[in-house]
Amino acid sequence: MDTDFPHLDETVLATARFLETVGRLGEEDVRGPSVLPGWTRAHVVTHVARNADALSNVLHAARAGETGSMYPSQEERDADIESGAARAPHELLEDAVAACGRWHQAANQLHAADLEEPMSRLPGGPTQPVRRVGMMRRTEVEVHHADLDAGYTAEDWPADFVAALMKRRHRELEDSGVWLSWRTTDTGERWETGPGPEVTGTAAALVWWLLGRGTGESLACSAGRLPELGRWA
Question: Which of 81, 79, 76, 70 is nearest to 123 (CA)?
Answer without folding.
Answer: 70
